Every structure is written in structure tokens, then in C-alpha cells.
Protein 1
Amino acid sequence: MVVNAHPDDAEFGCGGTIARWAGGGREVVYVVCTNGDRGSSDPEMTSERLAAIRVKEQRAAAAALGVKEVIFLGYPDGGLEDTGAFREQLVRLIRKHRPEIVLTSNPHRRPFQHRDHRIVGTVTLDAVFPYARDRLYYPEHEAAGLATHKVREVYLWGTDEPDIVIDITGVMDKKLAALRCHVTQVGHRPEEIFRKFVCERAAAVGGLRGFTYGEGFLRIEFPP
Ligand SMILES: [Zn+2]
């Protein structure tokens, strides 16, 4: 399960990893928390129109990586808060989809980051542990037939000092193709410049472990 703040965060943060895992037969579900409706400098664009376009872009990008399902929570861009209601939504989805691994933004990225990235990382970690694991949190879930669930690992993207690097050399083209689906976000950049930007970053991370291209994460392992 990938929990991201905005359409396109997952492709930037872990698109290659998702392509590899989905290609290897793993089921991947996206939870896209905001609709990204502020992400435009086009004077003709409206939030309503942008939100509708970004849903389509996100579905296309997910399909390009082999993601099975995309769930949109529909919060406004910049509108995430660390609330009990948001946490309950994530706990419910974790208990329903029962992921082995959850991927999300590193909430402690230095020196700073988008507020939504910080909040989605924090609330997702809280939802995984202890809320989804322990049955007396949200007892209404049990009454509705949703059992507790222990996530095995959380991978946090957005770190300069990863403790795990996934080799994405063989799927770099898929990551690039998925990113290009986000036309409202990357469409203004010429293909060659964009490709160079993404490949240079992936090469720097991959180089930490001797791979041509890589994606790096902080990994949290929970005891069984
Ligand atoms: Zn974002």
C-alpha cells in the first residue's frame, strides 16, 4: 500500500520500486490523500478542473506501473491535518487491504518539505502502529467485520541517507513513463531535460549501492 499526499508523489518517490514489485506479482494499492487541486501556475486553470485532470493522470500513471487499485480520499491540496478522522480512514484501509508493506513520505525530511508530505507521513505511521494493530482502537471496525492488521514494514521515501536502496535500473523507463502521465506537473519540461533530472537523482541514489539507478528509503521493520 502506497499512501501519498498528492497525485505524482508516489511516482517520484517509489515509482521504480512499485514497477518492480507489481511486475513480480505483488498487489499494489494506492491511497491518494489530496486531489492536488492547487498544483498549477496556469492562469486559465481552476482548482475544480485541475482536480478532475489529476485523477485521470494519477490513474494513468498507476496503470503504467501495474498498480491494481487507486483510492482517492479527495482532501484539498494543502488541506491535510493530523486528525482522528483522517487517521481512522487510513486505519480502516489498512485493516481492509492488509498490506505487508506500506510506503509513504518521510515526515522528518530535512531541511523542510511540503506540509501535506509531513502530515501524510506522520498520520500513516500512526495508523500502522499502534492503531491498525490493536483491536481496541476503532472498535466499530471489528463490529463491521474488519480485523486488526500488523504491517510488517514501512518504507519512507524522501531521505538523503537511505538504509535500503532498491535497484530500479531495469524499470527506469517505466518510472519515467509513469511520471510523464502527470502532464499538468511535468508537461512543461522538455523530455530530455526532465529525463536527465530524474535519471541523475536515481543514479546518485543507486550509486550508493553500486546500481545504475535506485530509489532509497528509510525502512522500519515491525516485530511479528
Ligand atoms: Zn507532493
Note: The mean pLDDT is 96.
Protein 2
Amino acid sequence: MQERNVDDLASVEAQYGVPRAAQACHTAVVDGYVVVGHVPADAIRRMLKDRPDIVGISVPGMPSGSPGMDGPKEPFNIVSFDKAGKITVIEKR
Ligand SMILES: [Cu+2]
């Protein structure tokens, strides 16, 4: 695994085709998919198994109580985004 801290994550995310509304604090590339923010591991596993025709998935923002975030659980959306920049809510947690 290669890890890199950058000052301008938004431009890195743009380079990987992450639409602005899906951007968050961390970007990973996993087996050809882009994973943005605090996405639950089981959602990543499902994507890697089903191999949908998308660029990647994201939990936009830093919702309290999402994986890796402290604080009371607040509802959050898991979204997918495609090559056209279209964002689809695939799951609410
Ligand atoms: Cu974060």
C-alpha cells in the first residue's frame, strides 16, 4: 500500500474522477475503484465482489459515528459515482 498526504486533496480527487459533491477527507484506490471518506468495509467488499460499472463509492463529509469517526451515530449516505459524474445514493445507514 502506498500512502501519501497532500495539501490539495480536492485536485487529487478530481484527477480520479470524484465529483465535488462526493468528495471527503481520504481517497483510496482499491482494485480499480476509488473509495472516498469513511466508507464501511462491508460496502467496499460488496462493490469488489459485484464489480458494478461505477468509478467508486463515497461517504461524503465526515459523518459522526461512521467507521473511524467518534461521536454519536448520525445517519449517513453511501453514494456511488460514475464516469459522467452522476451520484447515486446506494444505501442509507
Ligand atoms: Cu475523515
Note: Residues 9-92 form one domain.
